[in-house]
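W.,

You were right to be curious about this one. When I first looked at the sequence I had no strong expectations either way, so I just let the prediction run and decided to look at it fresh. Below is the sequence, 274 residues in total, followed by the output.
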Amino acid sequence: MPELPEVETIRKGLEKKVRGKRVNKVIIRSEKAIKAPSSPDEFVKKIEGRKLSEIKRKGKYLILELDCKDSLIIHLKMTGRLIYSSEGEELSYARVIFIFPDKTQLNFTDMRGFGGLWLVPDEEFSNIPLLKSMGPEPLENDFTLARFRGLLKGKKGKIKSLLMEQTFIAGVGNIYSQEALFLSGIHPERNASMLIDREVESLYNNLLAVLREALSYGGSSIDAYVDLNGKKGSYESHLRVYGRQKKNCPRCGAVIRKIKVSGRGTCFCPVCQK
């Protein structure tokens, strides 16, 4: 599933390609992709003729504000993609297509069909599952070390599971939680309540560093992720532990192990991470 660096890369692409454009036509090829409103006809009626005025992101959600009091919310889930193309271009697994006056179109494709689109009034978009309880954005200026310490205070359970919890921090998933923990020398199964001050500071700094670094490379193309132009991210070759089970640790040379933490495959170095 795309995480913060991937979704933010897509948001930046939307900002350049479609912000300010008016939607001439909406084509729905899979009604299942429309989560709200309940009527696909109403979805089309409310979007056609409207302009995409602002492009935002919250966690792993994209928020496309219209020039009225509605917002289009998109969650890509496992295999969802947003692809910008010429009008009429046929893409595999296209679920919803937005056509613009300049003969271009924005395609929502989804091979497995788990992603979704919600069109809701602005004052209600926080009622979408997870948005209402979403944790803070780690790359915002107000996400300070002091705030991170405060979020961790009193928390129990495995630190890797906590980092992936969207109500704790928005946008961090399986890839970047593993990378941040490796850089910090923290075992993914450590109890969050047992982290000492220097480990908390190290984790804070490394989490932000790895998210920014991944963003600078356009994200990691694990599974289906591509950017708005269909281009893969180039950060995958820079990953230190994710997906590197049975390979050598880039720091100490020990063999990287893979275990399951809260049902998710998790790679770590048994020597560097304690």
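Here's what jumped out at me. The chain has two domains: 4-127, 145-268. And, maybe more interesting for your project: The first helix runs from residue 4 to 17.

Coffee later to discuss?

I.
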